[in-house]
Amino acid sequence: MESGRRKGLNGVLSSLSLLCVILDIQLDGVLGATHVEIEQHLEMGRKLLAAGQLAEALSHYHYAVEGDSKNYLTYYKRAAVFLAMGKSKSALPDLTRAIQLKPDFLAARLQRGNILLKQGNTQDAREDFETVVRKIHTTELTSLSPQLSPWDPESRELRADCYIRLGDPRKAIHDLTPTTQLRNDNRAAFLKLSILHYSLGEHQESLGHVRECLKLDQDDKDCLSHYKQVKKLSKQLDSAEEHIEEARYQEAIVKYESVMRREPNVPYYTNKANERICFCLVKNKMTAKAIDICSEAHQRDPRNINILRDRAEAFILNQDYEKAVEDYQEAREFDTENNEIREGLERAQKLLKLSRKRDYYKILGVNRSANKQEIIKAYRKLAKQWHPDNFREEAKKKEAEKRFIDIASAKEVLTDPEKRQKFDSGEDPLDPESQQGGQGRPFHFNPFESGGNYHFKFNH
Questions:
Q1: pLDDT tens figures, 359-373
Q2: Measured between alpha carbons, how far is 301 from 170 in angstroms, rounded to an integer?
Q3: What pTM does this model have?
């Protein structure tokens, strides 16, 4: 019995020994050919990837990773194939493994950051981007690594990509600009610079860079396409501003509306168009629409003093002086040195103060944009309605006299260009106190003080 057990155990041990020998032979074969075979797989993978045969390339990179699980580059290269196949989820573990094996592998961090950002993991993506920026910046300061020299275009392009992802296009432009000189035929950098300037609303700078790209290759499809886009928008913007200079405000509005239709997804151009349309509507004295458009523009760009100034002017046209003062005060907080804003605020404050005394526009019931014909028509109607001869009772007659005096004063001021200009600037030309800085006796025109009865004939 005991001898049978020993024989069985010896048989099992012999089988295990044989299995170990076989496995050892197989492993020894694999490990012995590691460097040669891995290099062959990597080379084949590279060639197949370049040829667009992604599935075949991937199989070779699988062999390379299995053959050398400690090489960060094999993981990175396989991740590149996954990305080319549109399988970013599969690429993520390989990029993470590459970073674990080599924490300062910045290209892998940038790629992983891009994937994380697309997946909505903004916090981890930001950490990767900031690590790249911090590492490159530190290397520039210490100059310890020849691989990341400040004059190395690759390191600058890498950091520029991170700044773009971090939402800092200015720093990206700063890094990319030298690379156009550091690398021959760097059309990609010129195009990227053009796109960055375009996104910031700097269409002239954008044109300059894309033209440099086309100088290197006039048939470059990407640069040619972007050039046409920038050129067309630039022409519309320049044309709109020319219309404004020539006081052709309605035509400028049409141009800026076209700009918004062309670039609805670039905030700068939408905001700029709304700002200038707001300005044009005020100039055309389209008060209600101006207030609406200016308010929309203010929501989009709340610190823009030009929008606040123009909306304040629209409120003045609408005789809403308190809101005009509020807008000018807000604009003043953003720019305390701007003389135009300071003068506008002073004028709005004067008009508010004046409106609490006598507002000649309100007396006649006309808008501030009313022309002389509209003013005279309103005057005649009210003068006929409030002429004192129309009233018998003493109290009503006295009230009518007061109203009639105000109506006559309003007509006198608003039909005289010089007096109207003074009133629009916040001064009452019929009030000596307003004219002389508070000195003198208040004066009001009264057609009834010289005695006798005044009779008016109104022609219709």
A1: 889 899 998 889 999
A2: 19
A3: 0.57
